[in-house]
Amino acid sequence: MAKISAQDLGSQPINKLLIKQAVPASIGILVMSLNILVDTIFVGNWIGSTAIAAINVVLPVSFFIAALGMSIGIGGSSIISRALGANDSKKALKTFGNQITLTLLLTISLVILGLAYKDSIILSFGGKGGIFEPAKIYYTIVLYGVPFLALCMMGNTVIRAEGKPKFAMYAMLIPSVSNLLLDYIFINVLDFGMEGAAWATSISYVFCFAYIFWFFLSKHSELKINFVHFGLSHPIVSEIGSLGFVTLARQAVVSITYLFMNNILYDLGGETSVTSYAIVGRMLMFAMFPVLGLTQGFLPIAGFNYGAQNYSRVRETIKTAIKYAMLLATLVFVLLMVFPESITRMFTTDLEVIKQTPGDMRWVFAATPIIAIQLIGAAYFQAIGKAIPALFLTLLRQGLFFIPLILILPKYYGELGVWMSFPISDVLSTMVTAYFLNREIRKNLSQ
Fold first, then answer.
1. Is residue 47 one of the residues assigned to a domain?
2. Tell me: the pLDDT tens digits for 321-339?
C-alpha cells in the first residue's frame, strides 16, 4: 500500500485518495467488528445465550467511557488536519499533547466512578434477572482495560489525521486478533467463563496501546511532542471539546439508547428479546464496516482541503464519498434481507432467539441504503470544525427521532413498535441531513 503524507491529502486524485484512506479504515473496522462478532459467537456457544445479553448490558457503559478518547481524538484530529493543511505544525503538536492529557484525566476518573457504583449502573442498563451476575463479572474486569482503549481510540484518529491510514489499520487489527486468540484460550481451553471473556478483552486493549505508543515514538509519525505540549491550552481544549463533544454526545445517546432498549425489551419479551437485540446490535457494528470505514477515510481529506481553502476538492470529496457509501450500504442491505436466519444461527442454538431475531433484523436494516447520506453529512461538518451543525446532525437520528419513537410506538404496536422505530428514524434523519448538507454546499463551497 502506497505511503500517504499529510500534503498528499491536498493533491492526489479524490477517487484514489478516498480509497487509500477508506480501505485501511474499513479493514480495521471490519476486523474490530469481526472481533466483537466472533467474541459474541464464542460466548453464546461456549457460555450461553444469557451471556450475550450480559455483554450487551456492559458495552454501552464501557464504550461511553472509552468514547471520551475517541471524541478527544476526533475533535483534536480535526484541528490537526486543518493545522497541517495550513502548515501550522506548532498548533498540531500542542493539540496532540493536549489530547493525551485530557484522555488520561477524564477516563481514569470515570472508571473509578464506574467501579464504585457498578451494581446500580448494571441494573439501570437492563442487567436484571439471570443477566445480572454474568454482567457484573464482565463489567468489573473490562473497566480495568477501558483507559487503554480510550488512548487507542484517541491515538488511532490522530494517526489517520497524519495521513497514515495503514498504521491506523494495524492498530485496529492487533486487539481484534489478540482478543480472539485469548478468548479461545481463556474460555474454551481454560474454562474461565465470563472472567475469561472479560480478561481477553482487557488484555487486547493493552496490546493495542503498546503498538500506538510505539508508532508515535517511531520515524513514521510527524508529530514529535515533548513535555511542554502536555500542558493544557485553554483555546485548544475549548476547540477539542466543542468538536469532540459531537462524538461524545453521539456515544452518550447510544448508551442511553441501550438503556431504554434493554429495559423496554426485557419488559416486553424478557431475556429472549434482549438477546435478539444484542445479536442485531453486533450485526449493526459488523455489517456497516465498509460505510463507517469510508466515513473515517473521508474526514481527514475534507478537513485538510477545507483548511487549505480548496473548496472544489471538498465538494468532490463529499460527492464521491456519498456515491461509494450508498453503493456499499445497498450491498449490506441485500445480504441482511436474504440471510437473517443463517446469521442468527451462528450466534446461538436457542430456538426462541432463532425464531425471533430474523424478523427484528429485517426491520432494523430496512432503510440501510440511504443511511450513507446521514453519516457523510454529519461527518463533513465535524471535519471542517463546525461543531453546532455537526452536533445537531449527529444526534438527529437516535436522540431526536429514535428515542422518542421507541417510547411512543410500543404503546400502540407492542414490541413491533420498537423495531419499526429503526427505519423510520433512518428516513427522517437522512432527509434533514440532506437538506443541511445541500445548503452548506451551495452557500459556502460554491466559490
1. yes
2. 999 889 989 998 999 999 9
